Amino acid sequence: MVVITTTAVPDHVRGALSRWMVEPSTGVYVGTMSARVRDELWDAVSASVGDGAAVCLYPADNEQGFDVRTAGERRREVVDWEGMMLVQMNPLAPSEVEVKRQVPDGW
Asked: How far apart are alpha carbons 79 and 74 in whole angstroms?
C-alpha cells in the first residue's frame, strides 16, 4: 500500500494522484501499485508541488517496515537517526514568529 499526503499543491497534481489512488480525505491518497508506477508518480508529484508539500509512505524492507519521501518545504523534516526515520521540527522562520506575536491573548 502506498500513501501520499499533499498540502497546497496545484490542482493538476491532485488530478494525477486521483487517477491512480483513492482520496479518502482531503489531500490523503491511498493505493496499491507497483514500485515502478509509485516511483514514476512520485517523480511527477515532487516535480510539481510548487509552494506546497507532499509526503509519500510505502512498504520497505527495513527495521520500521516503511520508507518516507518528502517534497516541498515544511517545518517537519524526516531525518535518519542510526537507520531509523524520525520527524524533526525545525524552528519557525522570523516572519512566522512575527505573525504568531500579533495574535491577541486569549485566542
From this structure: 13
Query: Measured between alpha carbons, how far is residue 35 from residues 3, 17, 31, 46, 88 in Å?
Result: 13, 15, 12, 16, 27
d(CA 25, CA 17): 13
Per-residue pLDDT tens digits for 24-77: 999 999 999 999 999 999 999 999 998 899 999 999 998 999 999 999 988 888
